Amino acid sequence: PIINAKKRLSYFSEYDTMTGVYNRRAGFEKLSQRYKSSESKNSTISVCFIDINGLKEVNDALGHEAGDELILSVIAGIKNNIRNNDFVARLGGDEFLIIFEGMDETKAEEIWSRIIKEYNEINDMQGRKYIISVSHGIEVFRSNSNQFIDEIINNADEKMYNEKGIIKKDLKGLRDMDHA
């Protein structure tokens, strides 16, 4: 029982309980480790900052159960399309990081396109009362560039925020069920 308690404590200290991805602290720690090892290997890491569009509206109109389903659907779409050595960290609420090791921005964008394709298929086929919509921004660490992790994440966040402004103009997060 003590071993199980230690395993559970370790799990809860590293993972977000709802989504099963790394929590903020563990995600930053793992990213820092990857960054340090990439410097010695002369490799690249792409950081994708994502934010779920319309989560507050879904929570307010349909309840937190629907909001949780939206978050879990977003994470499932990511997990279905990333490689085993990539990982996801929940920064909080509706913000996440995807870390692509050894991948430049072009390749990371290709994977992001597959993720978006999966979200669009769910939106088209499942008839949910809300739309899965996510904004993203990708920034690349290049080894030996003397860039700081915070700077890279802030740049990715800024790109995501710019995309979010464009998407939100056209986004209708909840479906008009009278016409669906």
User: Can you count the helices?
Assistant: 6
Overall strand count: 4
Q: Mean of residue pLDDT?
A: 87
Helix content: 40-55%
Spatial separation of the terminal alpha carbons: 52 Å
Show unreliable segments: none
Characterize the biggest β-sheet.
Answer: 4 strands, antiparallel
In what range is the share of β-strand residues? 15-25%
Strand order of the largest sheet: 2-3-1-4
Write a short abstract of this structure.
This protein is of the alpha+beta class and 180 residues long.
Q: Can you characterise this structure?
A:
A hairpin with a 2-residue loop joins β2 (87-92) and β3 (95-101). The chain contains six helices and four strands; from the N terminus they run ααβααββαβα. The chain is of the alpha+beta class. The chain has helices at 2-14, 24-41, 55-62, 64-79, 105-125, 149-170; strands spanning 44-52, 87-92, 95-101, 134-142.
Topology:
Layout: H1 2-14, H2 24-41, E1 44-52, H3 55-62, H4 64-79, E2 87-92, E3 95-101, H5 105-125, E4 134-142, H6 149-170
Antiparallel strand pairs: 1-3, 1-4, 2-3
Helix pairs in contact: 3-4, 4-5
Describe the structure using short key phrases.
17% strand; 180 residues
